[in-house]
Structure formats: C-alpha cells, structure tokens
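Appendix B, example 12.
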Amino acid sequence: MAAHRQCADAARGKLELASIVRAHAAALRAGQSLSGAQRKALRAIEGCRTEQLGGHIAQCNHCAAQQFHYHSCGNRHCPKCQTLAKERWLQSRRAELLPVPYFHLVFTLPHEINALALGNPRLLYGLLFAAASETLIEFGEDPRWLGGRIAATLVLHTWGQTLTHHPHVHALVAGGALNAEGGWIAPRGGFLFPVQALSKVFRGKFLGALSQWFEQGRLKLAGSTAALAQPNARRALMGSLRAKPWVVYAKQTLAGPEHVLDYLGRYTHKAAISNERLLAMDEQGNVRFSYRDRARGNQRKTMQLPANGFLMRFLTHVLPRGFMRIRHYGLAASRSKRVLLSAARTALGVSAPLPVEPESVQAFWLRVAALDIAVCPICRIGHLCVVGSIKPLAPYRARPP
C-alpha cells in the first residue's frame, strides 16, 4: 500500500509534504517522543486524499467513465486542506469589515523565550495573544490616540521561512474606534499607534504574567529550561528580557475591504510550509526546499535538511489540540460583534452588507481556477454523478474533497 502511494506521488511529478511523511514518519515515530497532536497531524497528512480515508466513486452520465475521489483529512496543518477553508473563512469575514483603512501590526516574542514556549505552547501562545490584544485595546481606549473600542483580528504564526521557531502574531486593526456615545473616531496623523510605546506595554504585560507563572509553578521546566527552576536563573532571564527592546512592527495601511481580505488571506490558513516550496527529496532522505532570506533583501534561497530533521522542524509548529490560532477582539469579538459592528456602521453612515450563502466546492473551483469539477475530464461533455462510496481503511474522520 505504501509503495502504491509513493508511486502515485511520483506520477504526480511534484514533491508534497505527504510524500515525505509517508516515507519517513514511521522512523520518526519510533525515534522521537511526539505529542498526541503531532502524531494526529502526521497520520492525517499521510492519509490525506488516499484510500485510507475512503471517498466516493463518480461516473460520467455520458461516457460512463469512472473517477475515484478520496477524502481530504481536513487537518489545519495539512498544506492541501487550507485553500477552501481559507476562502470560506474570508467569505464570512467580508460581512464584518468596516469601510475604513486597516493597519497591520506584528507582535514578536524574543528568541530567548522559544524553548520555554515549545515546552509550554498552550500557556505561552495564549499569553502572546493576551498581551498583544490587551495592548491594542488599551491604546484604543486611550483618548490620546483614539478613545474608544477598536476592531482587531489576531493570527498566530510560529515559524520562520526555514521552519525555525519564531512565535509572533499578525494583527489586522480597523483604522478607528467606536466611542461610548456611538460616534466613530478616526486615527490622527495617518498612523494608528506609536510602535515604540506599543512595544514597551506589550513587553510589560507579557513579562508581568510570565513572572507570576514562574512564582506559581505553572510552567513545565525540562530539558534546556530545567535550570529555570532555580530562582537565580529565572531572575537572570527576566532581567535580560526586560532590558532588551521587543519588536512590534507596523506594516502598510490597507484601504478597501477587498484589499484587506486579500492581505488577511495570506496569513490566516497557512501551514508552516506549502507544497510549492518543496523542491526535492533524494535517495539518502535529504529534503530541499526554498525560502526567502528576509535579512538579505528577500532573496530566494535553497536549504537542505535530513528528512527527520525537516519533519521535526515542521512538527514544532503543530498547535495543541483545540488551540485557536485566529482570534477576534473588541468590535469583532464573537459574543458582541453583531450589535457593536452594527453601531459602528451606523456611526460611519453605511448599511450592513447583504448575507452571503456559503460557497460550494464546485462554485469555489469554478471561481478560482475556471474549473468545473462536475464536468467529466474524459469526454468533456457529460457530468459526474456519485454512484458509490469507498470505505476508509483507517478510523479517521475524513472530510469530502
């Protein structure tokens, strides 16, 4: 079965993450201690769109040709399963955008925290969201800058271009705030908030909570972080973190809902690496992939890693089960957005957009690739109709393609 899948991968002529997983995951599982979420991600990617997950049989109503369609895994770390999810998510967000410029900010953790975050991902990534969102909300409420409630969407990324650990959140913030009287306050001077002041407040909020957690013994300390069980080591770490500047980066202003959506779509449903960046895997088990060197003018370069090392880098970006990597705050917070966004639109003098029905898979492919997946690829005349199902070979919860 494995040989059949590898032959199918080779026939497609393009290296995929699934090909690397199928060839090397068994050795990785045997030699490494993996979390349940990491093992689940490997199983899902390995079986994605194969007979393992089952599927259905479609037959042309003109030439009677049959097509076998295997189910997708739907795992959020699988690079093949994010395109449709992203489009549907963006479609639902379109109705929530306000007709104002948007600002993109990035909150990044210092690399000294990386090992601690890898050992405590749920706590530390949650704290990153909390510190960044509370900082933005606090600045929005401050009358020196806006003096009202902002609308913000935050997205967690944990990787750099070479799959190294680089935790940061992207924040997309509407340009303005809704004040207590129901009026809209636009930002002054063409910018939202001063990034140096944001950086200091962000640092203070994060380190304040981290210090409390150390004192309360809430953090798991093992391996390279075991020394932090000693008070002197903790004080040294906290002192160095307080002394260095933290990075909050403000990117360009985005005007118009469609520009905002296109921009947001680059960050929301990305896997740590796309199949397009994978170049080759040789017989010795080395994987080559492309990356952009940000420090050298965004030059495109190539890196080679042993397959096990490549997969371990990839797996450091598998999030804890149930952890939400996209979160909304202020006017966009789920529990109150209907009322608050309606009030913001009233203040801006615009009406609410008409509701949009979720896009079907067929309509999605027709729109993005001019491909009608219902038309028979053999005769190009008839249409494919489902005539049977393919039972899964493993107890996965598969999703239709």
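The radius of gyration is 24 Å. Confidence is low (pLDDT under 50) at residues 1-12.
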